[in-house]
Write a structure and sequence with these properties.
Layout lengths: L1 E5 L4 H12 L3 E6 L9 E5 L5 H8 L4 E4 L9 H22 L3 E5 L11 H14 L4 E5 L3 E3 L7 H9 L1 E5 L3 E2 L1 E3 H10 L10 E3 L9 E2 H12 L4 E5 L1 H15 L7 H8 L2 E2 L18 H14 L4
Parallel strand pairs: 1-2, 1-4, 2-3, 4-5, 5-6, 6-11, 7-10, 8-13, 9-14
Antiparallel strand pairs: 9-12
């Protein structure tokens, strides 16, 4: 089928396009910057605020996979524009073009909208998707890792240095980007098992990963035994203020993210798992982390 994709130049989007092309699909992908020509991909210049570009993106598509979103912003307005207004504009374009199917990549943070502005914006975007009248499915990934990722890369680099700072308490689920991409495509046909439902996929590890265990697993992947430094929420907030003072809009750790990271339970809900007949994770996490570290080394990142 022809699939309209937002966020196709990002970490998850690139993996999605690779797999979609491998499965024989045609792709129309939104891009803010010029991209190299590629067989099977029609790059549509524009962003989520460009209604004309969105109309061109969804024209002739049988489904939309909405991956694009703002994961870090200096204020609430940044999340609102990128995650809420952008999703509304895409929905309006899809409805006008008669595209029946929408798979929306949300976030596990959406189930706790009071904790962070990011989670609140994803929660509001989900409400728009549910009210769209489209044949929708929402996917709430936990932490996503894999080649090209620059977010969890910070932990790999810290592990190589021998010291990994983590939240003091709590657990989190993980998923490899290729497993996530495979899931998004597996959901496209729709049907009674997936339509009008929200899913929380992961690597299959019940109970998730403690921050200590994950830090040590990443250390193993880079060939080190790092010291794991557990940080309280107050300490993380102080670190966020320092990062924001030094790097300003480019800060990786903001107060919003400090609150999000400090929440003790980012483990997927068992009742929100994807039906096994539709999808199962294939990549064992320790091996996936090791392969990701190898990719970082090959690219000169580590």
């Amino acid at each position: 089928m022809t699939i309209a994709v937002t966020g196709g130049t990002g970490f998850v989007g690139q993996a999605l396009i690779e797999r979609a092309l491998g499965e024989g699909h045609e792709i129309a992908a939104l891009a803010r910057k010029p991209q190299d020509s590629r067989d099977g991909v029609n790059w549509v210049a524009g962003d989520l605020a460009d209604t004309k570009a969105l109309s061109g993106l969804v024209k002739g598509a049988q489904a939309v996979i909405h991956v694009a979103g703002v994961v870090n912003a200096p204020d609430h307005d940044g999340f609102e524009q990128g995650n809420v207004a952008g999703t509304l504009s895409l929905i309006e374009a899809a409805v006008a073009a008669g595209v029946p199917r929408l798979v929306f990549v949300s976030s596990l943070s959406a189930r706790e909208p009071a904790i962070s502005a990011y989670g609140a914006s994803k929660h509001r975007a989900e409400r728009l998707v549910k009210a769209s009248g489209l044949d929708w499915t929402i996917v709430r990934p936990p932490a996503v890792y894999g080649p090209r990722d620059r977010e969890m890369f910070e932990l790999f680099r810290a592990a190589k240095w021998g010291l990994v700072p983590t939240p003091k308490e709590g657990k989190a689920s993980l998923i490899h980007v290729d497993d996530l991409a495979r899931l998004l495509l597996a959901l496209l046909p729709g049907g009674e098992h997936v339509t009008h439902r929200s899913f929380e996929p992961d690597d299959g590890k019940r109970g998730g990963w403690s921050h200590d265990d994950l830090a040590r697993a990443i250390g193993w992947a880079v060939g080190r035994r790092p010291f794991v430094l557990g940080l309280s929420r107050r300490t993380m907030e102080r670190a966020a203020k320092l990062d924001m003072a030094v790097r300003r809009k480019r800060a990786k750790l903001t107060l919003d993210r400090a609150g999000y990271f400090s929440h003790p339970d980012w483990v997927v809900s068992h009742g929100s798992r994807v039906p096994h007949q539709i999808w199962r994770p294939r990549i064992e996490t320790r091996e996936g982390l090791k392969a990701t570290a190898a990719w970082y080394r090959e690219q000169g990142w580590l």
